[in-house]
């Protein structure tokens, strides 16, 4: 709780059963249960679209998915009056305690206790399910912090520090006891009406499945779903195929007698290089075909979230989970664990905790700067896959780019080998930043083939 800036946690929820809560799974689990969806136009004006100005539709998750996928069965359903290419739909603030009242065992799929909140699970969270384009107007929450687990799809967060409040033109209309809204549509601002907004410093991050976003108390945030629910799944399959190909190659070449095992017991099968390349090609082809189909058919299946709320003195506490899913936990301060320290604990950022920087220094969810990705891809267009600076190996982390000479003067090969082993190699080569960049390069190359 001493962390005062927004950050993304990696590798905190890899064993949470809630990561299996994709929209199809939830539709089966909540079969027949009618849910209220908020509906809005995708083409936004310069004014925020508050909840009081939206349309509302009641339907099941099965009907919602059929509509978002433009299946024939949705022609007469509750969403039939809205064209999915023009409208988004969002089931927000759906209490898990109510949704899963017949399946209370599902509460245990969410493990907020891993973050130091003993005994807290999904019962205090809420579920959010929406299509691409679904959004929440910019606001700050009056009390508590936010922990958001992304389950499926991707969400882009626009964050602003408390000291920028005057630049965001706060309002209590529409009134919500736990929130203060901004009069500004932060993604399409009317700078003539709100000129001070130019001074606001945007911290922007896109949160991917399995990642957990921490939003400190009183930080403003605007949230938008930016992908169909299956986009991230296709890209993840490409990254998985790359990882599998590399890890099997290293495993085959490594000394199998070593006691330092780095393969999970559930991943002991080492398939052939030919098999792995077939899987990689299938994943790349599937991803490109899906992206092409989205562009031509405007398929917009959405995102789902889970939020939790806490009742305390008749006040609402929010915890959000997305299907593009987020879990957003806003614990009541009175319930926070007491940490006895002589001085504030220093927060160490690194591979598993990524600091969210202002937009001018912005990083993407894998920790690599957005400008680095764009510059690298544009400069090497038509030459993807070629190696530059052949005499060096580059290793990028969150703070800098270090270049390490392949030949170290005065060092023998045996001395270098003694200091670097298989685990060291895998930690670098299989770093999510590296795999993410390789996946983008492969997809870019495949588009030009």
What this model shows, in words?
Keywords: Cytoplasm. This is HSPB1-associated protein 1 isoform X1. InterPro entries: Cupin_8 (IPR041667), JmjC_dom (IPR003347). 24% of the residues lie in helices and 22% in strands. It is an alpha+beta fold. It folds into 2 domains: 7-229 and 301-361, Jelly Rolls; 232-296 and 366-448, no CATH class. The strands form 4 sheets. Strands 1, 2, 3, 4, 5, 7, 12, 14, 17, 18 and 19 form an 11-stranded mixed beta sheet that branches. A 6-stranded antiparallel beta sheet has the order 9-10-6-13-8-11, with no helix packed on it. The chain has a two-stranded antiparallel sheet with strand order 15-16. The longest helix has 25 residues, at 273-297. The N and C termini lie far apart (50 Å). The relative contact order is 0.16.
């Amino acid at each position: 709780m001493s962390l005062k800036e927004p950050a993304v946690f990696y590798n905190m929820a890899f064993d949470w059963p809630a990561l299996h809560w994709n929209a199809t799974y939830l539709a089966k689990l909540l079969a027949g249960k009618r849910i209220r969806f908020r509906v809005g136009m995708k083409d936004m004006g310069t004014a925020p679209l508050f909840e009081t100005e939206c349309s509302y539709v009641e339907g099941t998750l099965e009907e919602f998915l059929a509509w978002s996928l433009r299946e024939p069965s949705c022609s007469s359903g509750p969403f039939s009056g809205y064209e999915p290419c023009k409208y988004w739909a969002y089931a927000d603030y759906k209490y898990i305690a109510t949704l899963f009242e017949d399946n209370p065992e599902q509460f245990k799929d969410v493990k907020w206790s891993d973050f130091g909140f003993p005994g807290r699970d999904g019962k205090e969270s809420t579920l959010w399910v929406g299509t691409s384009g679904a959004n929440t107007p910019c606001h700050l929450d009056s009390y508590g912090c936010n922990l958001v687990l992304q389950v499926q799809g991707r969400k882009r967060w626009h964050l602003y520090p408390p000291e920028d409040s005057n630049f965001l033109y706060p309002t209590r209309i529409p009134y919500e006891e736990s929130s203060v809204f901004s009069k500004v549509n932060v993604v399409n601002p009317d700078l003539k009406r709100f000129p001070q907004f130019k001074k606001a410093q945007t911290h922007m991050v896109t949160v991917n499945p399995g990642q957990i976003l921490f939003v400190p108390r009183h930080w403003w945030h605007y949230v938008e779903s930016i992908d169909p629910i299956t986009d991230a799944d296709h890209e993840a399959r490409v990254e998985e195929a790359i990882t599998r190909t590399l890890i099997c190659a290293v495993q085959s070449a490594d000394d199998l007698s070593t006691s330092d095992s780095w393969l999970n017991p559930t991943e002991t099968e080492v398939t052939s290089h030919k098999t792995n390349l077939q899987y990689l090609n299938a994943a790349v082809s599937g991803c490109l075909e899906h992206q092409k189909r989205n562009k031509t058919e405007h398929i917009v299946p959405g995102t789902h979230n889970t939020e939790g709320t806490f009742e305390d003195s008749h006040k609402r506490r929010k915890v959000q989970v997305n299907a593009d899913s987020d879990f957003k936990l806003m614990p009541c301060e009175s319930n926070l664990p007491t940490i006895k320290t002589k001085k504030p604990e220093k927060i160490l950022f690194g591979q598993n905790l990524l600091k969210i920087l202002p937009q001018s220094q912005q990083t993407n969810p894998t920790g690599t700067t957005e400008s680095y990705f764009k510059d690298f891809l544009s400069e090497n267009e038509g030459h993807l896959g070629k190696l530059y600076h052949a005499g060096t190996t580059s290793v990028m982390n969150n703070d800098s780019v270090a270049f390490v000479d392949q030949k170290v003067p005065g060092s023998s090969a045996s001395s270098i080998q003694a200091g670097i082993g298989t685990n060291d190699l895998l930690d670098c080569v299989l770093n999510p930043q590296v795999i993410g960049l390789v996946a983008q390069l492969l997809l870019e190359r495949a588009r030009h083939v």
